[in-house]
Amino acid sequence: MNKPQTQLKHGRVVSPSSRGSVAVDLGLLGTWQVNEMEGGKNLPALGAGPFPAPYGSDEPSVAPPADGHILSGGKTDARDCVNFTDEEMSKKLNRPFSWPLVNVEPGQVFRVQWVYSAPHVTRGYSWFITKDGWDPKQRISRAQLEPKAFYQDFYTQVPYHAHGPELKAKTEHEVVLPKNKKGHHVVVLAWIVANTGNAFYQAFDLDFK
Question: Does Oxidoreductase show up as a keyword for this record (predicted)?
Fold first, then answer.
């Protein structure tokens, strides 16, 4: 049994269904584990270091998640399952499995809803997506993702310690999806914290119609 304090972990997307939500439904993870898919916030950088300007007064990033472990925020325990390919999940479950797809239209507004068990002073949210021609038989790596976030939703107030009450985690927010994508893509959403070196990672499998 998990100790009660292990429940007090940070935040997750509850709508639409993320890979973490699917793993909870499959009995592979508890919700507290999906709330704490936490790793360095400077993705796609490889190493720790200052957060980019004009937000360099935010706490520096710890090392961002390693390739192959990005979707779990770098976690390599039970949470590593969210990084699994369909083949890896099929072996783990001992039955055929494919990550469920959320149907979307290119260029549509994509809305997400968060639940937070420990909100943090928030800089914002970064959205990444897989490249055209990415290989779903390989785990998500920097080479599988477009080199830059396709959208960033950041508070502009600096320094964070003078604006803490204003820098609130958003329970609902939205993004316009890329207009040029077709078929299956993975979106990585990072909730970026100003007063620590971390972000919290959530991932979605989308089917662009």
Answer: yes
